[in-house]
Please model this.
Amino acid sequence: MAWLRLLLLPAYVALAHYAGALQSPLLAVLALADLVLLVLIEPLVKPRLWAWLALAVVAAGLAALSRTPLALLPLLLVPPLFTAIFAWCFARSLRAGRVPLITKVVAALYGTTPEGLSPRHRGYTRGLTATWAGLLAALTVLNLVLALVAVPGGILPRLGVDSPWPITEARASLIANVGNYGLLIGFSVAEYLVRKRVFPVRPYGNVFDFARRMAALGPAFWRDFFR
Model:
C-alpha cells in the first residue's frame, strides 16, 4: 500500500495544480478523487465494506460536483486544511504529559524510549517539533489567504467581495499545491544537514539509510505516530 500512496500523492499534486491553473472542473474532481483514495486506500485494499460504501457515496457526490461551477472551490481549502491538521498534531505533542513527535521518531531510530535519550537529544527534538508546528501554522495562514484572495474563483470573489490582494488562481495554485511541498522538502534537507553537525554519531549512515530506517519502523509505529 505504501507504493500506491507514493503514486497517488504526486498525482494529486499535479492534478490539483493543473486544475487551478487551467480552471478545469474535471481535473479538480479527479484531484479530489485521488485525495479520497489516499485516505481510504488501506481499508479499500483489506477490504472493508464501509470504505467501499464511503467511496461510492463520495464518487456520486464528486460526479454531481463536476457539473457545477463550484468544483474548484474544495481544492482551495485542501492546502490550509492539510497544513492545519499537521500543525495541530505537532503542537499538541508539545503539551505537558505528551511526547514531542520528533522525539518519538528519534527514540525509535535509536532503539530506546524517549526517556532513554540524552538531554541534548530531547532538547533538540522538542525544539524541532516546535519549529515544524510553527512552519506548518505559517503555511496554513498563507494557504488560507491564497484561498480567500485568488481571482476569479477565490472565496472572497465568489462572495462578491473585491480581493484586497488579487492573485491569479494559477499562481495561487502553484504556491499552495507545489511551493508548499518544495518548502517542506527544503526545510527537511536543511535540518538534516544541521543535524549531521550537531549529532555526528548517529544510528544511520546517510540520508538514504535514514529514509530506509524510517520506513523500517513499520506500519504499527506510523499508525500510532500522531496519537
User: Anything to note?
Assistant: The mean pLDDT is 88. The first strand starts at residue 150 and ends at 151.
